[in-house]
């Protein structure tokens, strides 16, 4: 109200409205910026909102306009890079991040998304170099440890992932993904440490009961502990949330077999075959 001509203030207001009231309201607010004040930051924010409104072509056009006008805000570069990664435009994301690093050097958020993008480009060694640099310069920030631990666990380097994920949690990562991947790392790196895995997945469940991966892993841990009623509860919940979840059905088949219910076990195996035949290339990686 005091400075209606301020594009910077209007951008911040549009971001707040976008997150509070949704994309349509955020877009309406950002469009109030007069054409003569629409700089690179305006177009990057507009691209982010359009992507949230599931208008990828319009979002991409706005993104390109933004890059041509030299944006200055690291938060908008960050979200623009995530937009490109989401759509698997990894080389374009690299180009954007190189551009951003010249404009805004030493931004930890931009360095972090650079590490994520390098991982998606199948360049794990280069990604690790960036993550190590972030951790040495900002050792109190939990997010690099979390991202690093997740990457290592996905690559089945669970013994290395576990301490990084434990560090992330110790630094305050109250994120269900932190506890999910830590529980997964424990089951792989220390399969006999079932109690630690159970305590960790319980923390994930406190934060999110509607994630099928969390429910499936909780079911698998309960199955390992031979707590079959609890395993059935978690696995049936996972399948209700995602009926075509192969991982949950495989564990559920084992639970039924352990309970002596061979027909139900066989039915789950048949369902797995049907799912794989219907969509053989589907990636179910969390």
Describe the protein's architecture and organization.
40% of the residues are buried. This protein has helices at 7-21, 23-30, 40-52, 56-68, 74-86, 90-103, 108-120, 124-137, 142-154, 158-170, 176-189, 194-207, 212-224, 228-241, 246-258, 262-278. Helix 2 packs antiparallel against helix 3, helix 5 runs antiparallel to helix 6 and helix 13 (212-224) packs parallel to helix 15 (246-258). The model has no long low-confidence stretch (mean pLDDT 93). The protein is an all-alpha fold and 286 residues long. The termini are far apart.
Q: What is the structure about, briefly put?
A:
By secondary structure, this protein is mainly alpha-helical.
Supply the helix-strand structural class. Answer: mainly alpha
Shape: elongated
Q: How many helices?
A: 16
Beta-strand portion reads under 5%
Number of strands: 0
Radius of gyration: 22 Å
Task: Give the helices and strands, then pairings.
Elements: H1 7-21, H2 23-30, H3 40-52, H4 56-68, H5 74-86, H6 90-103, H7 108-120, H8 124-137, H9 142-154, H10 158-170, H11 176-189, H12 194-207, H13 212-224, H14 228-241, H15 246-258, H16 262-278
